[in-house]
Amino acid sequence: MPNADEVPAAQPARDAGVPGYSWYALTVLLLVYVLNFVDRQILSILANDIKADLGVSDAYLGFLYGTAFAIFYALFGIPLGKLADSWHRVRLMSIGLALWSAMTTLSGLARTAPLLTAARVGVGVGEATASPSAYSLISDWFPARLRATALAIYSSGLYLGGGLSLLIGGLIVENWESAYPNGGPLNLAGWQAAFIIVGLPGLALALWVLTLKEPVRGLIDGMPSEPVEKPFRGFVDELLQIIPPLTILGAARRGVGALLVNVGAIVLFALLAIGLTNWLGSGPGAVVAQVSDQWLFLGVGYYAIFSWATALRSRDPVTFSLTWGSPAFMTTILGYGVVAFIAYATSYWGAPYAERAFAISKAEIGLLLGAPSAVAGFLGVIAGGRMADALYLRTPSGRLFVVLFGLIAPLPIIWTMFTTSSQTVFLIVAFAAQFCGASALGAAAAASQALVLPRMRGVATATFFLATTLVGLALGPYLAGLVSAKHGDDLATGMLSILAAAPVGLILLVVAIRLVPKAEATLQERARAAGEPI
Questions:
Q1: Cα 497 vs. chain centroid, distance in angstroms?
Q2: Per-residue pLDDT tens digits for 485-515
Q3: Shortest CA distance to 235 belongs to which of 458, 448, 532, 451?
Q4: How far from chain centre, in Å, is Cα 373?
Q5: Residue 180 backbone zone (phi > 0: left; psi -120 to 50: alpha; other: beta)
Q6: pTM, full prediction
């Protein structure tokens, strides 16, 4: 029987109406995601000031925004995704929101690069609770026919928050420094005050989130799930499989063979990290002092994901089969990962580039770039979600065509954005790039959710975000910053270099378009074959 605090969100019928409460709850989740990206993306408008105050390079700025956040966001997203599949999702999201808001506030007290890095790691851990919980809740509040639209509305918070972060951050910094030119209370600089001011509201929002009702898991799809008796057991098990050095203990529990494979992976990823550090940190770009941090973090992250995937294969072969073992699922999330690779780099470096190339003030950037970007992203993700739902009714691979558009359409726009000498042209094409890139998110999310069973949605979401973080966020902004640093802080060259990833994404998405229809049609059959008692 469902828990007393679980309430049905809708009847398990294809054409059933959506109750008003579902839309109300979606609105609250949207506010959470807006704040999520205000706290994350505000680094963009603060980047040049942080660079000047802390004496760091563009490579470090890309590392701070991307890898330092992304690795821990990805690693903790897996056990927290498991907890979202077994525990109270509303409570989990509220706890995570309070944590990342507190860590954003602490970012404003950092006075050295290592302390700022540590605070951003904490933000990553807290934010890892949000989307696994939200995607699972939305899938239980909305029927399949509206799921891409609902997920797109939620995902619009990414673009609303990202745009608002430029507007809010720019206004805070300029007003703070105007009022306190020699440092304000606690000798805080403007960029530090901005972190504190945007971090504190999340603590109040966390209390609001706690008032939401938990829907019955899987009811809307006609497959209600029984509550898990010991939800935290799975969470702890996942920690042992993905958080180093606990991963060694987790592997040892599976046997000598698993332990040897795990130790071998440690050696392999360590050698790769050392090799990449020596290669990319040498030569005329030796000015880039943070190269070793990037590949150390990334090596730990990829090793941890390897440990988790091998453990999942032995502990839950059905979930492994429908995610890591499914070519349709993997090509879908990795194809979108390339979209994210380009989009994250563009959204992060757009404001610093405008400030350097056109000498635009921070307040002007917020108004001329941030606010239009919020509108463009919102319109793009909503339009993409609606188009994905419409195309899905025509063909099972319809959502993937929207993802493909989100990869290809921005390419000539981004090229123009970082080569034009006209500020007006830059702002116009920045709007267009945001609109086109945003269109893919709801479609990719809905396509990946359709390839797993309801009990796996939290883990599937966390796996989906591995691609957006470990491929997109951890590599895109950093590599653009690294190329910039190696070419005399030339951000245009850095940004143009990342477009070379597009052919990889194209191949992945073309394969996904061919595989997804059959994979979705045979979902329950494949689950039964893997051992699921359906």
A1: 22
A2: 888 889 999 999 999 999 999 999 999 999 9
A3: 458
A4: 18
A5: beta
A6: 0.84
